[in-house]
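Q: I have two molecules that I believe assemble together. Could you output structure tokens for the complex as a whole instead of separate predictions?
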Amino acid sequence: MLELAIGIILGGCALGAGCAMIAGIGPGIGEGHAVAKACEAIGRQPECKGDVTTTMLMGCAVAETTGLYALVIAILLIFVAPGRFVDILMQAIGN
Amino acid sequence: MSIIFLLLSILSFVSAIVIKILFVPASEGIDITGAHVFFTIKLPIQDLPITEAQVNSWCVMLGILFLCLFLTSGLKTRNVSVRQLLAEWIVEKSTNLVRTNMGEYFVGFAPFVAAVLGLSAFSSLSSLIGLFPPTSDINITAGWAILVFFLITYYKMKAGPWIYLKSFGQPVPLLAPLNIISEFATPVSMAFRHYGNVLSGSIISILVSVGLTGLSKTIFSFLPGALADFPYLRIGIPAVLSLYFDLFSGGLQAFIFAMLTMLYIAGGFPAEEYAARKKKREERKAARAAVMNANKRESA
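A: Yes, here they are, computed for all two components at once.
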């Protein structure tokens, strides 16, 4: 029974980490769209290349935030969560 | 004389490396557990752990301090040296940046914005020397974000607390809870964006290093003895990755942190209401002064 419980904990953590990174779709689509619009703007006005590129990079870095939230959750689930959860399980069994 | 400051600046970075070599235990394989705690100070409410990230942050701060002292010592009006040109270029660029993004009222913010930019950039770049970058610890970036949150709230309240409370009811009073949540989401998102980018860079570097070590052990196993254990593939390849993860990503995130600070503070400042309030106060003061002058002339 103990092995089953620990197996469920570790499997759940791994599955959660995998599902969390589905959020990587968002920044990919959004930033690709932003770069497309930036290319259009440069094509229309080639002398504004520096300003457009700086603004585009800034916008991309801000839009990256939600993807990073997902990455932090996945890293926590892989490296930190199993130890904590198994400790809680051992405490509950000991009592 | 001023070369002493440059030596002190290099000494503070070297001392951070020496502390890491002496006190942080070496790790085998993948070790992604966060900063190493050196010791804990017992305090009444909550213990204060002194971690590797804090010590590295202090060493980076000392390094930047002595570097700035080196750049600005011995200023002259003629026959300027190269470091004086560099110092003047830095001051000019940061003042222009603040004036362009925040307007004329906030020009005094230039030292603060340049300090945040420099500290953030140097902290992220310290991973090139082999240190644990302080910005890959959530506590460091959360501290800066809380400071920025207090600044934003102070400048929002400058036109009076009633206008600050009314701004939560724009555009529809029904959206007030969402506005309050987005107030708190600002520092949280700033802290997590900076922390997440630097952390992901360091994790990918660790994983690539471990992978290349294993790969080189299997490829070069035909060599005798100790020559086979040396990780040959780790010599040049991780440097190419660190061009993106350390240099580009660290510098860009530092710039974005500074830009968001400027935009949030200047954007939340109610300029028209503050100007109107100041004008009303000066009119009242002028009216009272005119009344006192009239009384003095009557009694004299």
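A: One point stands out. The interface with chain B takes residues 57-58, 61-62, 64-65, 68-69, 71-72, 75, 79 of chain A (CB under 8 Å).
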